[in-house]
Every structure is written in structure tokens, then in C-alpha cells.
Design a protein that fits this description.
The complex is a heterodimer of chains A (275) and B (409).
Chain A (H helix, E strand, L loop, with lengths): L12 H13 L3 E5 L5 H12 L2 E6 L6 H5 E3 L1 H10 L11 E3 L1 H7 L4 E6 L8 H11 L1 E4 L4 E4 L5 E5 L8 H6 L1 E5 L4 H11 L5 H15 L10 H13 L4 H7 L3 H4 L3 H12 L7
Parallel strand pairs in A: 1-8, 1-9, 2-5, 5-8
Antiparallel strand pairs in A: 3-4, 6-7
Helix pairs in contact in A: 9-11
Chain B lengths: L1 H10 L6 H12 L7 H12 L6 H12 L8 H10 L2 E3 L4 H6 L5 H18 L36 H6 L14 H9 L12 E2 L1 H10 L8 E2 L7 E7 L8 H13 L5 E7 L6 E5 L4 E4 H7 L4 E6 L6 H5 L15 H11 L3 E5 L9 H9 L2 E3 L2 H11 L19 E3 L1
Parallel strand pairs in B: 4-5, 4-8, 8-9, 9-10
Antiparallel strand pairs in B: 1-11, 2-3, 6-7
Helix pairs in contact in B: 2-3, 9-11, 9-16
The chains are: A alpha/beta (275), B alpha/beta (409).
């Protein structure tokens, strides 16, 4: 089972290697990187390439580790008991598996994406250690232990909102997605805009990386914003020259008003020779 | 040799644990480095370095270790010799020793030999992991004598050179980056209700219990999970602090945006807090310090930010205040001590480099407050101190004599 990338998702060779190591050693793969570098898309690409089903577990601040394994729907059972539907003696019918639980219980190998693990409480990753190590969990209500027949491929993303505990990090394979270099970015843009004019793309990329390098910028624009910007520019039929002089649709690229103003100010500064 | 690399990394402050090391060995034995130092560079990093803030340290350690070495470094021999006598550092802590997983090294060894044998038969240069030159050492499989291409593009760059680029310098945690990272460090600053009194309705558990109870309402109470942390931020502005203004502004906006504090107050001072604290320094709008102190107590954490760099007078003399037209009846030092007594959980963050902390006034301030550099590491340490916890930051180990500390598994 080897991941080799897909036509719509471009990966660097080292990322492909790391994905394959994680799959082979059956360790969770922790992905970090600036927002918009395609951390979440990676899981989809792996699923597509390997032809496996992808289960997504979106983490929120209130998510608890057990939610990913199973939820015992006591209210539904009570409801059934009152109104006479279903077999309320069968507790198992009210145990609903979460994404990890489903992957463990399935006889097919699955991919589980634990998306934005840093959103949850600080203890959350530690609460999952046991299950990720053993690939099994106990359902308290039925006394049943569910053990993975096919260990799922686990991809975890983090946006660095919180530090993750050491014990958790030790068990993961870690990859940090570098922000694409201009050349790599060109390839990425071509996936989304196959027929983009070279002159326009040159100009857009120059401007994009110039903006990203402005030191006072609060939030640097990411790949997805660049792709949207190009879409907006092309739809409006704006020429390459006008991009330099006017920087149209900055709002697509920058989400903060202060950043928009900052870029406009920086752009209007006369360029001194030699700088 | 392999163990040397482990020591080398640990000597640079990357705490590679046995679990991680063995996982790397397993990855190598299963052929994931493909006899390429370039691939090994990324592989080893993914297996043993789990924070991007350590990437730069790893790069330096890697370049240092493999500089010149990679001509003779033979992965196959190295791994075989390691597998026949697997060693791990002796100076492991108790906790680290417990982590050593049960690992079947026999099997690993067999797997590895099998792959080698396969390779000798097939002589293919393609996907198989020992390069075209058969059982080829690191680095002499390609046309480039010193190494292997990295990343498929760019061509001809050796792993040592790539590591030498130090592309991750900006991710180091001993320099501060942005508001977001500061916010993430501050988020660890929390004090959940310490009294165990369950006086808040736990709605979710109540519904669950009631449903299990056949619909009879069963109230479940729990201790409130709200953060009870109160923070007072005092910042030095103007004068020698001007070069640090951008950094301080970042810290301020991170603290201000931290919605998890129960209360947050902030004031400014110039060089040292005296009778008054200012809400607007340029207009000298402010309040008497004594009033502010009345409103805070030991439940508050105080974070002072300043370079603590001033004339000794300003700290130890009455009337030493630098503001024109103001006069202090009590010395700055007395005010600092009073603040510390009122709020024992207090720290001083200093944007100046630790090199200059020997200056007299800085030394004096340090007798009152624990001082930390205003970097991500410093902030993390400060937060740990405020929480009363032990510092969580990996302490740098001194490089040890690699030969002295071998231990057989």
C-alpha cells in the first residue's frame, strides 16, 4: 500500500515518503503547517489514492475523546421505552460509534482524519493515547471490547492553537508542511487554474510573495486565498499590468482591514532604486 | 555510529526518547531511507523531532554530524551492526526507561537481511531501497560523491547542504514570532476551580443520568469548569523600551484577546512603577497604584514587562522617578516589593537579551521577581512559574561522551 499523490493534490516527495512511513509503521501522522497549506486535503488525497474510505472527525472545543469512539444515546432509549418503539433491552442498538469507533469496528481498512486536534481541551490528546496505541476500546455499557481488525490510518492536523502533550507527540510521526516555494506554488496554481496566462501568474506570484513578506502583516495570505484571488482577477478580466498598479480585490487575499490598509500603504511607497 | 547520532541530537537539546529511536530503527530496517541521506534527513526528522521549533536545531545538528562523514557512512553496515548489538543511552530517566516498548529485534533483523538478499538478487535501481550500486553506502550511490538529491527538484543539493540552509530558523522558539504563538502560550495559563464544591448544574450528565434512570429527573452537579484566572499586565513604555514596542504590542494583543481569563487589567509605567499606573502614558492618564493594588489579590497573576534598565536612582531613591514634575515618596523598589507581596504569582518578562541581565538594576529587580526573556520559551517558562508548575521546557543536556554511556538492552 503506497501513497503516491493524486492529480489534484500536489505533494512534495518528502511528504509522500513520510505518509508511507506512517502507514507502514502504523503510527498516527501528525500534520502541522500554516493554515491553507493543505493539511486536511492530504487525508482526502490519501483516501482517494489508496481507494479507502475516509472518516472525518472535526474537533471542537467541547469535543471529548470518547465521542470519537462511541456515544450511548440514553435519550433515544428512554424515548423508545416511553413510546414503545424499538427493542430497549438491546443496549447495543443505542451505542453509536464515532469516527474512530467505526474505523475500529469495520473489517475494511479506513482512514480517520482527526481534524484540528488543538481545538479541544488540553487533556484531549492524552485521553486518546490508549486507544490509538492498542487500537481498541471498551464500551462500558455493554462490557464489550472493540478491537480494530484492520488498523486504520490515522491522520491528525493541528493549527498550533495549543501545545500538544509530549506523550502524545512521541507516538506520532510528525510532518510540518512548508509553505510552498514560488515554483511549487506555480504547480499548485496550475492544478486549480490549468489555463492561466503566464504573464498574469508571474505578476500575481510576485505580488503574493511580496505581500507575505511584509513584516507587520497580521495574517499572511495562504494558498487557498491565492487561488481565490486568481479566480477573482480572471473573472473580472484584469490584466497583469493592472495587478501591479492597482492590486485589485485585496479583500479576497487579506481578511483584516488593517492588513489591507498596510498593503496599500506599502504599495504606494515609491520604490527606491536598489531596494 | 547510529548511537552517536542519537547522542549528538540529545546533546543539542533534542530529547529523543527510546520509543522514537526504536521507531526510527524500525523504519530504517523496513527500507524507508532508501540508502539516501536526503531521505534519511526527512525520515529521522519525522520520527524523532516533534516540534517545528526544534527543526532549526535539528538542521544544525544534522549538518554538523554528517559534514564530511557522509562519504564513509554506510547505512547497511551501520544498521546491521546496531541490530546485532542494539544500544540505547544509559542515562535514561526512569520514565524514559518505562517507555521502551517491547520490540522484537530478532524479527527486525531477519526482515532486514531478507531485504538485503532480495536486493542482491534483483539489482534493480528502481523502487528498492538499497540504491543502484547494490548494497550501497550512504552517499556513493549517485553521481554526486557527497550525497543524494533532495526533494526531487533543484537537483544536486546534498542533505548536508539542505540542512545547512537553516530554513527553519524563523520557527525557533527562542525567538518570538507572532501574537498567535503568544496566545497559545498564554492559553496554558489557567486555573480551574480549585474548590471541589459541586455547585453548578452539569446539564449533559443530568440528561444522561435522567434518561438512564427511566426518565426520573436526576440532577447532576459538578464543579464549575470556568477559568478563574485573573491577570494584571503592567508594561514599561517609552525610552529604552521603544525598540521593543512591536514585540510588546504583540504580547499585549495576545493577552487582550485571551478570552479565557476571568478578569484582565493592564496599565503602563515608565521604567518602574511608582505611585501611579497609567492607562494612557502619552497623556499621563492613570490611577494611584495603591488603588489598583486594592483591587487585586493573591488570586491574580501579575505579568510585568520591561527591560528593568534604568538609573539605580530610579529604583532605590526617593524622588528617583524619571517623570518630570512627579516625585515619589517611596522608592521604586518598595513599590515592586509591595506588588510582589500582594500578588505572589508574578513574573517579569524582559525583552532585552539575557546577556545584559548583569546590569545592576536588572539584578535588583530579579531579587524581587523571577525574570524571563520575552521569547516564546521564556513566556512558556513564565506561564509555568505562574501556574506553580515545574518548567516544562526541555533542559539542554551537555553533550556526553558517547562511548562512556553504552548500555545493552
Amino acid at each position: 500500500m503506497r501513497f503516491s499523490g493524486t492529480s489534484t493534490y500536489i505533494t512534495s516527495p518528502e511528504l509522500r515518503d513520510i505518509v508511507n512511513v506512517a502507514i507502514d509503521l502504523q503510527k498516527p501522522l501528525l500534520m502541522k503547517g500554516e493554515p491553507g497549506t493543505g493539511k486536511t486535503r492530504l487525508a482526502e488525497a490519501i483516501a482517494e489514492d489508496l481507494g479507502l474510505e475516509l472518516l472525518v472527525w472535526n474537533i471542537k472545543s467541547t469535543t471529548k475523546a470518547r465521542d470519537g469512539l462511541y456515544v450511548y444515546d440514553t435519550v433515544a432509549r428512554l424515548n423508545d421505552a416511553r413510546f414503545g418503539d424499538g427493542d430497549v433491552r438491546n443496549i447495543r442498538a443505542y451505542i453509536k460509534h464515532g469516527p474512530l469507533g467505526r474505523a475500529f469496528a469495520s473489517d475494511k481498512r479506513m482512514i480517520v482524519l482527526i481534524d484540528e486536534i488543538d481545538k479541544a481541551d488540553l487533556e484531549f490528546p492524552n485521553d486518546l493515547l490508549h486507544e490509538l496505541d492498542r487500537m481498541s476500546f471498551l464500551v462500558d455499557e455493554t462490557g464489550e471490547t472493540i478491537t480494530a481488525r484492520e488498523r486504520p490510518i490515522v491522520i491528525i492536523t493541528s493549527n498550533n492553537e495549543k501545545e500538544l502533550p509530549d506523550a502524545f507527540l512521541r507516538r506520532c510521526v510528525f510532518h510540518f508542511i512548508d509553505f510552498p516555494t514560488p515554483d511549487f506554488m506555480r504547480d499548485i496554481v496550475h492544478v486549480h487554474h490549468p489555463d492561466v496566462e503566464k504573464a498574469l501568474l508571474d505578476e500575481v506570484l510576485t505580488r503574493f510573495f511580496w505581500i507575505r513578506d511584509l513584516p507587520e502583516l497580521r495574517k499572511r495570505p495562504s494558498t487557498s486565498e491565492l487561488v481565490d484571488w486568481i479566480a477573482a482577477l480572471r473573472r473580472a478580466g484584469i490584466s497583469a499590468e493592472r495587478i501591479t498598479s492597482e492590486l485589485p480585490f485585496l479583500g479576497v487575499l487579506l481578511k483584516r482591514e488593517t492588513d489591507v490598509e498596510l498593503v496599500k500603504r506599502a504599495a504606494s511607497r515609491p520604490r527606491r532604486p536598489g531596494f | 555510529m547510529f548511537v552517536d547520532f542519537l547522542y549528538h541530537l540529545r546533546g543539542h537539546g533534542i530529547r529523543v526518547t527510546p520509543t522514537e529511536w526504536l521507531a526510527l530503527m524500525e523504519a530504517l530496517a523496513r527500507g524507508h531511507a532508501r540508502a539516501s541521506l536526503g531521505v534519511f534527513y526527512h525520515l529521522a526528522r519525522a520520527m524523532v523531532v516533534k516540534r517545528e521549533s526544534l527543526f532549526d536545531t535539528y538542521d544544525r545538528a544534522f549538518a554538523e554530524f554528517f559534514e564530511g562523514v557522509d562519504r564513509q557512512f554506510d547505512l547497511t553496515d551501520e544498521l546491521l551492526s546496531w541490530l546485532s548489538n542494539p544500544q540505547l543511552p544509559r542515562e535514561l530517566t526512569e520514565a524514559e526507561r518505562e517507555q521502551i516498548p517491547h520490540m522484537d529485534l530478532e524479527t527486525l533483523h531477519e526482515q532486514f537481511e531478507k531485504r538485503l538478499a532480495e536486493q542482491k538478487e534483483r539489482h534493480d535501481g528502481g523502487r528498492h531501497w538499497v540504491g543502484t550500486g547494490g548494497v550501497s553506502p550512504f552517499g556513493n550511490g549517485g553521481s554526486n560523491p557527497q550525497g543524494i538529491r533532495v526533494g526531487g527538484s533543484g537537483g544536486g543539493r546534498t542533505a548536508v547542504k539542505v540542512a545547512g540552509d537553516r530554513r527553519y530558523r524563523n520557527l525557533r522558539s527562542d525567538i518570538v514570532l507572532d501574537t498567535r504563538q503568544m496566545g497559545s502560550a498564554l492559553r496554558r495559563l489557567r486555573r480551574l476551580s480549585s474548590d471541589d464544591q459541586a455547585h453548578e448544574l452539569d446539564l449533559e450528565k443530568t440528561i444522561d443520568q435522567s434518561a438512564r434512570n427511566g426518565g426520573e429527573i436526576e440532577i447532576v452537579m459538578g464543579p464549575p469548569r470556568r477559568n478563574r484566572l485573573r491577570v494584571l499586565l503592567l508594561m514599561d513604555v517609552g525610552g529604552s523600551m521603544d525598540p521593543h514596542a512591536a514585540l510588546c504590542e504583540k504580547l499585549f494583543s495576545a493577552a487582550h484577546a485571551s478570552t479565557h481569563f476571568k478578569a484582565f487589567k493592564h496599565y503602563y509605567f515608565h521604567n518602574c512603577p511608582y505611585e501611579r499606573l497609567y492607562s494612557d502614558m502619552s497623556q499621563l492618564k492613570g490611577r494611584p497604584t495603591a488603588e489598583v493594588l486594592k483591587e487585586v489579590d493573591e488570586r491574580w497573576c501579575v505579568i510585568l514587562v520591561g527591560d528593568a534598565y534604568m538609573h539605580p536612582y530610579e529604583l532605590t531613591q526617593r524622588g528617583g522617578i524619571i517623570n518630570y514634575g512627579a516625585r515619589n515618596e517611596e522608592t521604586g523598589l518598595q513599590w515592586l516589593q509591595r506588588l510582589r507581596q500582594r500578588c505572589p504569582a508574578s513574573v517579569w518578562l524582559n525583552p532585552e537579551s539575557e546577556r545584559v541581565w548583569g546590569a545592576p538594576t536588572i539584578k535588583t529587580v530579579r531579587t524581587v521577581f523571577p525574570m524571563f526573556p520575552l521569547t516564546l520559551d521564556g513566556l512558556t517558562e513564565a506561564v509555568d512559574t505562574l501556574r506553580g508548575a515545574k518548567p516544562n521546557v526541555a533542559t539542554k543536556e551537555q553533550p556526553v561522551d558517547p562511548m562512556a554511556a553504552f548500555r545493552s538492552l
